[in-house]
Design brief:
Layout lengths: L14 E13 L4 E13 L3 E5 L6 H9 L6 E10 L2 E2 L5 H7 L4 E4 L3 H4 L6 H13 L3 H14 L5 H4 L9 H13 L5 E5 L7 H18 L2 E6 L2 H7 L2 E6 L2 E7 H6 L4 H8 L46 E3 L5 E3 L5
Parallel strand pairs: 3-8, 3-9, 6-7, 7-8
Antiparallel strand pairs: 1-2, 1-4, 4-5, 9-10, 10-12, 11-12
Helix pairs in contact: 4-5, 5-7, 7-8
This protein binds iron/sulfur cluster.
Iron/sulfur cluster binds next to loops.
């Protein structure tokens, strides 16, 4: 009798980042205000995770906690941020400084406040390379020129000697992207990187980030308030509201089968040529000091039920690992 041996090779997905039960508060005058509630996120190596939500929903606080760049009144109350299995929250600021810029880079919202006006753009990029790679000035300068070239800055050898104010807004953001890329990080966090730019420049910067991510296979977290941007190049999406993740899914599922009423509201408020009137979600997100009983979205939710202002919804997992916190699916 022939023994049939079936060997099943399971390709294990490798996660570069796992955030577990992250809770962050801010010390206000005489009270603690919770900005991030029990956030759980996973990013696979080489993939793009979009985090979307209105201003103040906790998306940037979550991102800054990965970089360990939270303001001094922030308190990480609990949770883990595992980068390649290492809990970043256990690292000292010195250890973190070695990771920041070399392994994990940030593309911030406003390039003007991220570049030092007193130093040339080249000086700032070269210094980053020297610090992390410990190579000669000549080699670091060559890498800086290549980085500026890769973000399509013309005549990079000359522009290296310019000060930030001699660059346009779009060029400054390109220079910041060059700085983020110069040490070949494994993970880039782009925090609303096009918000401070003109519409036409926004599209160019977005295309540039998309192209670089695809060419280098860098893992990317892309933070935005615009679901339309998410559609273009994210693999997974986490929708945040009032410090919580309310829905997490593959990008196709978010667009074809949104489950959470807030996700539906965000999609309905996207502009499109066949819409005469833009739908908006009524009301405002709560302030972080507000304590809302039950589902935190209930004051704005068109699907609200009796239970909603009494009981906080728990996680429901649907097909394709689509995750939602809403009593409609309990
Ligand atoms: Fe709306 Fe209730 Fe779902 Fe909250 S739990 S999103 S209030 S239906």
């Amino acid at each position: 009798m022939t023994n049939l041996v079936i060997i099943i090779i399971v390709m294990k997905k490798e996660n570069i980042l796992e955030i577990k039960n992250l809770n962050i508060s801010f010390q206000m005058e005489d009270e603690l205000a919770r900005a991030v509630h029990g956030v759980e996120l996973t990013l696979e190596k080489g993939k793009v995770l979009g985090i979307v939500g209105e201003s103040g929903c906790g998306k940037s606080v979550t991102a800054m906690s990965i970089m360990k760049l939270l303001p001094s009144n922030a308190i990480i109350e609990s949770g883990e941020i595992l980068y390649n299995g290492v809990n970043l929250l256990n690292l000292s600021q010195n250890e973190m400084q070695k990771i920041r810029g070399s392994k994990i880079s940030l593309i911030p919202q406003d390039p003007l406040t991220s570049l030092n006006p007193l130093y040339t753009v080249g000086e700032q990029i070269i210094e980053t390379i020297e610090y992390h790679r410990g190579i000669s000035r000549k080699e670091a300068t060559e890498i800086a020129v290549e980085s500026l070239k890769s973000v399509k800055i013309p005549e990079p050898e000359n522009r290296l000697n310019d000060y930030p104010h001699q660059f346009s807004g779009g060029m400054r953001q390109r220079a910041i992207i060059a700085m983020a890329l110069c040490c070949n990080p494994e993970l880039i966090i782009a925090d609303e990187p096009t918000t401070a730019l003109d519409v036409t420049v926004q599209a160019q910067i977005l295309d540039l980030i998309k192209q670089i991510q695809a060419e280098r296979g860098t893992s990317l977290i892309f933070i935005t308030h615009d679901l339309g941007v998410i559609a273009e190049f994210c693999n997974h999406v986490a929708v945040m509201y009032a410090g919580r993740i309310v829905e997490y899914a593959q990008v196709e599922d978010i667009f074809n089968n949104p489950l959470h009423p807030y996700t539906k509201g965000l999609l309905e408020s996207l502009p499109s040529p066949d819409k005469e009137i833009l739908n908006v979600i009524p009301g405002q997100p709560p302030a972080i000091t507000e304590n809302i009983p039950g589902c935190v979205f209930h004051p704005r939710c068109p699907y609200r039920m009796d239970i909603c202002d009494k009981v906080d919804p728990v996680l429901t997992i649907k097909e394709n690992n689509q995750q939602v916190y809403c009593h409609l699916y309990d």
